[in-house]
């Protein structure tokens, strides 16, 4: 999808707002994800963030195929992001894992394939391998070797673009400085919202033409990794006051804030009304003063602690 030097945002400027309806650590009732993806596509969403470990890629793929059959979209209109899970870091597992994802989706390629986390778990059938004491069983990983296998997937046409997720600056530099680097990461998916604005990482990524994709952009939290002590973002008085001015919700203000910073946002929702509301942020712009007010809300608060 992107050649060397091409930007994610420049190449996909109609995908700034995405709805991560595919995330669900606990399985939802059958058909929920299918209907949510179809509603999102009808609303105008074109970027779908998914992963093998969300356990619903079969429904995502079905929704895409049904909308293609209806003539609503073409395959090239959809930008699908898949992820390489922690147990699949060994280079020899990378391509087979992606091929398994493609088989589940019943698609010929993904538009973006990313390393979900920089740490690795013990390879095997267990998604979350644990020892007798309930602690995760880690596996020594060579991120550069894993990245080379990712590059091979791109060269084979199985992934149009490749990137990473939850990488810090040091881990990004490890990839960027790798001898013989063929394709640098086009994106880095990390938690990003008004209470956790990631200014240093954002600037570093900008310098290297790496797009930040912000998950949990509404301060929402995921079941097993929630930081319950974090203040609820959507009750913030500043966000609500600005929202009142534009007749928008605090959620819409939070999303618009990141969009204007050049951050791609992927809020999760299975609620049809919220899926539509999350898309209604292109009819207004925040002023420079309002952007600074929201930037000042940063508390370096993570909702997703990734305690692994």
TrEMBL record:
<dbReference type="InterPro" id="IPR044483">
    <property type="entry name" value="AKR1D1"/>
</dbReference>
<comment type="similarity">
    <text>Belongs to the aldo/keto reductase family.</text>
</comment>
<feature type="active site" description="Proton donor">
    <location>
        <position position="54"/>
    </location>
</feature>
<protein>
    <submittedName>
        <fullName>Aldo-keto reductase family 1 member D1</fullName>
    </submittedName>
</protein>
<feature type="site" description="Lowers pKa of active site Tyr">
    <location>
        <position position="83"/>
    </location>
</feature>
<dbReference type="InterPro" id="IPR023210">
    <property type="entry name" value="NADP_OxRdtase_dom"/>
</dbReference>
<dbReference type="InterPro" id="IPR036812">
    <property type="entry name" value="NAD(P)_OxRdtase_dom_sf"/>
</dbReference>
<dbReference type="InterPro" id="IPR020471">
    <property type="entry name" value="AKR"/>
</dbReference>
<dbReference type="Pfam" id="PF00248">
    <property type="entry name" value="Aldo_ket_red"/>
</dbReference>
<dbReference type="GO" id="GO:0047787">
    <property type="term" value="F:Delta4-3-oxosteroid 5beta-reductase activity"/>
</dbReference>
<feature type="domain" description="NADP-dependent oxidoreductase">
    <location>
        <begin position="21"/>
        <end position="298"/>
    </location>
</feature>
<feature type="binding site">
    <location>
        <position position="139"/>
    </location>
    <ligand>
        <name>substrate</name>
    </ligand>
</feature>
<dbReference type="InterPro" id="IPR018170">
    <property type="entry name" value="Aldo/ket_reductase_CS"/>
</dbReference>
<dbReference type="GO" id="GO:0006699">
    <property type="term" value="P:bile acid biosynthetic process"/>
</dbReference>
């Amino acid at each position: 999808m992107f050649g060397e030097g091409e930007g994610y945002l420049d190449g996909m400027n109609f995908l700034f707002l995405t709805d991560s309806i595919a995330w669900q650590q606990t399985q939802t009732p059958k058909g929920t994800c299918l209907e949510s993806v179809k509603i999102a596509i009808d609303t105008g969403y074109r970027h779908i963030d998914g992963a093998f470990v969300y356990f619903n890629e079969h429904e995502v793929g079905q929704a895409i195929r049904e909308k293609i059959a209806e003539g609503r979209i073409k395959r090239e209109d959809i930008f699908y992001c898949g992820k390489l899970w922690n147990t699949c870091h060994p280079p020899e597992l990378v391509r087979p894992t992606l091929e398994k994802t493609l088989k589940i989706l019943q698609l010929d390629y993904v538009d973006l394939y990313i390393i979900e986390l920089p740490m690795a778990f013990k390879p095997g059938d267990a998604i979350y391998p644990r020892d007798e004491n309930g602690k995760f069983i880690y596996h020594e990983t060579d991120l550069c070797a894993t990245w080379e296998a990712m590059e091979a997937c791109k060269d084979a046409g199985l992934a149009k673009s490749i990137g990473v997720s939850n990488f810090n600056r040091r881990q990004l530099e490890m990839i960027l400085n790798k001898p013989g680097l063929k394709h640098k990461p086009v994106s880095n998916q990390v938690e990003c919202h008004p209470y956790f604005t990631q200014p240093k990482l954002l600037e570093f990524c900008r310098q290297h033409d790496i797009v930040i994709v912000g998950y949990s952009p509404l301060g929402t939290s995921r079941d097993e990794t929630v930081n319950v002590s974090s203040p609820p973002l959507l009750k913030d008085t500043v966000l609500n006051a600005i929202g009142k001015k534009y007749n928008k919700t605090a959620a819409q203000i939070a999303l618009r804030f990141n969009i204007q910073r050049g951050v791609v946002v992927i809020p999760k929702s299975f609620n049809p009304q919220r899926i539509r509301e999350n898309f209604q942020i292109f009819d207004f712009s925040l002023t420079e003063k309002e952007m600074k007010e929201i930037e000042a809300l940063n508390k370096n608060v993570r909702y997703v602690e990734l305690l692994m």
